[in-house]
Amino acid sequence: MNTFPTWLEIDLSAVRSNSAQILKETGTALMAIVKGDAYGHGAVEVSRTALAGGASWLGVARYNEARALRQAGIRVPILVLGMVTPEEVDEAIAAQVTLTLHSPESLQLFSARALAAGQALRVHLKVDTGMGRLGVFAEETLPFARQALAAGGLEIDGIFSHLAAAEEPDNPFNNLQTRRFQSALQSLDQAGLHPRWVHLANSAAAFYLAETRHNLVRVGNVVLGLRIRIDQPLPAHYQAALTWKASLAACRRLPAGWGVGYGPAYITARDEWIGVVPVGYGDGLRRAPGNQVLIGGEKLPVLGRLCLDQCMVKLPRPYAPGEEVVIIGEQGDQSIWVHDLATLYQTSQVDISTHLHARLPRVFTGG
Questions:
Q1: Which of 43, 91, 128, 149 has its CA 20 to 30 A from that of 292?
Q2: Partners of 199 in the β-ladder
Q3: Catalytic residue numbers, as ranges
Q4: pLDDT, tens only, 292-334
Q5: Taking Cα atoms as reference points, which of 233, 214, 211, 343 lies closest to residue 290?
Q6: Superfamily (CATH H level) for 242-336
């Protein structure tokens, strides 16, 4: 019996199966992207499970995310995809965490800290092929790599870039970025420089653009069973890892003309059964029209304006307090998944899952 009013269930067997399936379908080593607390799913648990499913690398956005994985005893290669502070560089060297080399300034910092520590720092060189974020231009790759090696203290263990439009496989910008990345690789190859790891493909490219896989793919969404595109289902063998449930807090019969919620934005037209669910925008549900939940195998509308900690639902009949409520997941033959909320709110799935508040207990199953 669950002891929380509302909670997330993370099915680790889905994460393990999804990871193994990605390896099978791509035939390429897998870097599981677990930034943003594994997109709200729980970074330590998801990381361990993705590794059990065959992943060999983990990718994070910031060093504190890598630190948490190392403190949890995870010793596999970890790449920090974003910037780091000088103090974090020292930690990364000691913890053998790989950093992104993306600018002359990062080169100077990384080299100086590595030489001072007397220990080599592994880096992956970032090429900006058109995303406009971190990285050097393709034509700068060879001189930049030579400068890094001459500075000392650095081991260029990999090279990578990021595609801006991989969710649209026919977008010509993918070809442009791929050509730019290939030119950067060729310039290194002709100079006798061969980084061990070459990666361009994110989740979408790993499945839609086989030529971008090289020898490592970076996948986040599909590891968790989230769709690549919200309008296109994944193959049936991929499973969503996350469900969100609650227990019904109250069921009340309100008279006609009674206000429900702030405003009040909803007034009962007649005597109505109203359910109170202990879920609000403080948990990550959006204060927007159109929210629904599942109770008794039916999709039921959320009424009025969402509260911080609660919402009210129009019930077709009375239910006892404690009745299961599903906010994300399935009940009977009905379902509401992350991609459904992303469609409702006109945003990305990751925007939904990463905004599920830390106060929501994560209950891990299938581990």
A1: 43
A2: 160
A3: 35, 262
A4: 999 999 999 999 999 999 999 999 999 999 999 999 999 999 9
A5: 343
A6: Lyase, Ornithine Decarboxylase; Chain A, domain 1 (2.40.37.10)
Q: How far is Cα 189 from Cα 252, in angstroms, rounded to an integer?
A: 71
* Mean residue pLDDT across the chain: 97
Strands in 29-33's sheet, in edge-to-edge order, are: 197-199, 154-160, 121-126, 98-101, 78-80, 57-60, 29-33, 216-219
**CATH code for the structural domain at 12-224:** 3.20.20.10
pLDDT mean over 101-122? 98
CB 177 within 8 Å of CB 166? no
Taking each continuous run of H as one helix and of E as one strand, the counts in the chain are: 11, 20
Identity at 202, one-letter amino acid code: N
What is the CA 297 to chain-centroid distance, rounded? 29
pTM metric for this prediction: 0.96
User: What is the distance between the alpha carbons of residues 283 and 78, in angstroms, rounded to a whole number?
Assistant: 30
For the residues of 295-355, what is the DSSP string, one character each?
A: ETTEEEEEESSPPSS-EEEEESS---TT-EEEEEEEETTEEE-HHHHHHHHTS-HHHHHTT
